[in-house]
Amino acid sequence: MNKTTHAVSVRAWWLYAGMALLWGIPYLFIKEAVATISPAGVVAGRTLLGALILLPFALRAKALGPALKKWPWVLLFGAIEMAGPFLLLSRAETVLPSGLTGLLVSTVPLFAAVIAMLAGDRGMLKPLRAAGLVLGFVGVAVIVAGPSLVASGSGALIALGEVLLTAILYATAPFVVAHKLADVPSLGTMTLSLGAVGLVYLPIGLVTQHGVPTARSSVSLLALAVLCTAVAFIFFFALIAEVGPARAGLFTYVNPVVALGLGAVLLGEPITPGLLIGFPLVIVGCWLAATGGRFRAPKPAAELAESDLPPVASG
Question: Greatest CA separation found in the chain?
Answer without folding.
Answer: 55
